Model the fold of this input.
Amino acid sequence: MTGRLPVCNHTDHQPWHGYTFLTLPRNGFGMKRKLLRIAFCLAALALISSTSGMAATGRRVALVVGNGAYQDAPLSNPVNDAKDIAEALQKVGFEVTLKTNADKRTMIEAIEAFGDQIAGAEAALFYFSGHGVQIKGENYILPTGYRISSEVDVEFECINAYRLIKRLEGPMSRVNIVILDACRTNPFARKFKSLDRGLARIDAPTGTLLAYATNPDNVASDGSGRNSPYTAALKKYLQMPGLPVEQVFKRVRTEVVTGTSGKQTPWESTSLMGDFYFVASSVAQVPVPAPEPATQPAPAPQPSQAAPPPSASIAPSGDKKEFTNSIGMKFVLIPAGTFIMGSPASEPDRSDNETQHQVTLSRSYYMQTTEVTQGQWTAIMGNNPSQFKDCGDNCPVENISWQDAQEYIKRLNMREGTNKYRLPTEAEWEYACRAGSQSRFSFGDAVGSLDLYGWYEGNSGNRTHPVGQKEPNAWGLYDMHGNVCEWVQDRYGDYPVGAVTDPTGPSSGTGILRGGSTGSIAWICRCACRVLTARYERIKIGFRVVLDLK
Done:
């Protein structure tokens, strides 16, 4: 499976013109009326002075992706679709990032960068043209270069559309638009036929409009001309002055239904709070702002969220082989040493991002013997985000993003009166997982023995289990294979060719997971397997912490 990147379970700018809200005293009614008249006139004059008439002041940002170079079922038009939509969006004032024939890594890195770019923006738009599939009610959009031989691989090789949509969530004042021209025919029809038809319905989160090229559980046409029927209509109407965004998509729907003789009906789900125009009329459009959310009293702080005074446990100096902190987290000492990181070319199911190289870790450290449990999370954070809450306090906490893990570690350090807790680096994680071995798994090469050491797709029932039930590795670490995928501190990057000491990864890039989960097939649970994913991902993801010596 060389080349496979596993995933655990990413010109004519027209400025917008704004308006002013005035906070007035309760008395002085006549002054109020005068000020309101002035404010209204100023707003109207600002709008009339330009033909843009946008609904709010601020930047408009778009990520546009078109994938057609699929090995199983290539498509003719997505690259044209993406280029034409990108050009149209630039003409109506969007800052556009365009990606064509993007593989998994390129797409996740682009989505990560897009998530950073939309901070402070007034409008964010994501457009995708290419293959999309539905499996077990979940929608996935397909990168190029995937390696899929079974339904299980879809989750690991493709981009979950709902998680992408959730990535756009932000302030109510921002308009979020997601457009998926991705309901093409099933590219895996010859491999397996149990995938559902088209894409499943997703309801739009607050402040978002979701637009599909066709209705749920149906398929869309790639088209015989330069563009798909949907994109051909969309690029025309989004540049038409004076149309609210809802009218843009209504006209697109009418044209596509007519042009396909009723075979394809575009569909939207929207929860937008205010009006939005791609291009306004030459007649001023008075903006309708999104309603301000009702002021809510600040919630009373939960006792567990306020870190108590440093008590108890101070980071040990290394004279102890084992250590337990004040909330019952157990650690074992991992000795400094040198090992070969990555996998040999002869290892079954390896990926080509596992280039072997020598790594020296110059400092010993303590590693938690298990993944952070739900009870340990609740003791610090005062809540439990896990999907499998019914599993109990001794089960691993999951539904944790990289940022969530960082916040937990920050509060844990406050609780323990130290600054020594952190995530392991990728090298530290693999070194500890191997525990002196150089085999596929810490216990050897035989997949058949994985049942004894970890919870994975073959024995988990697709749910988490209490930590520490399986056999530990040679250094006393449990669940290094399976249960939940584990965050590491590093960002993803290519391995170096030569020897390195205490590597920490590149300064930019997407996130990395290690170890596999209850939904992972066996090869993802290998010591060397590197899982590339966006740092905002949460599904079936947890972590364990390390503790630096005093």
Notes: The longest strand covers residues 60-66.
